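Friendly challenge for the regulars: who can give me the C-alpha cells for this chain first? No prize, just bragging rights.
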Amino acid sequence: MTVLATQKLQLIHEFFKIKVIKFGEFKLKSGINSPVYIDLRQLISHPQLLRAAATLLWQSCQRLSFDLLCGIPYTALPIATCLSLQENIPMIMRRKEKKAYGTQQQIEGSYQAGQTCLIIEDVITSGNSVVETLNDLRENNIIVRDVAVLIDREQGGLANLQQQNLKVHAALTLTEIFTGLFQQNLLTESEQSLINNFLLQPS
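First reply, four minutes later:
Bragging rights claimed.
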C-alpha cells in the first residue's frame, strides 16, 4: 500500500471516529436524499485532524499554479486557512452576502485584477456553491481555473463544474470512503446494504 493510500485510510478512520460520516436519512442542499451525510464542520474541534485533512488536500493541488486561495463559506474556510498558514499562500474570502455598510466589499482580503485563485471546497455534490463563489470572483477580475475539494460525492458536481471551465482536484471520493470503511470493518451489515443500494442509484 502506498503512503498516500495509507494516509487516506487513516483519515477515513478518524472521520468515522468523530462522526464526520453519519448514516440515516438526509436531504442535501442539492435536493438529493442520501443515507450518508459528510459533516466536515466537526473538523474545527479537532485541529490535528484538520491539519491532516488540509495536508491530504494539498497533495491533490500542490502542482497547480495560482496566486491566492479562497475557501467557500463556511465549512471550507478553516481548511483554506490551514492551507494558507501551512503553505504561506495568501487567502481571500468571499462573503455570502455583500456588505451593506463600510467598504461594501463582496471579496475580502488583498488581491489584484488578473491574479489566479484556487477555490477550496469541503464537499462537492452538485457544485452549485462553487459556481456562486466562482461568479463573484470572476466579477472581480480574478482568474479561476481549478477547484480543490476534500470529498467529491460523485453525484454530478464534477460534470457541472467542467461546464464552467473548471478542473476539479479531489482528495477523496465517496467511493473511496465507503471502500475504506469496508476494508476496516467499520460498518454494520445494514449500513453496508444501505450504501450498496445507494451506490447503484444513478447520480
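Helices lie at 3-17, 47-61, 76-87, 128-139, 157-162, 174-183, 189-200. The chain is about 40% helix and 25% strand. Your move, everyone else.
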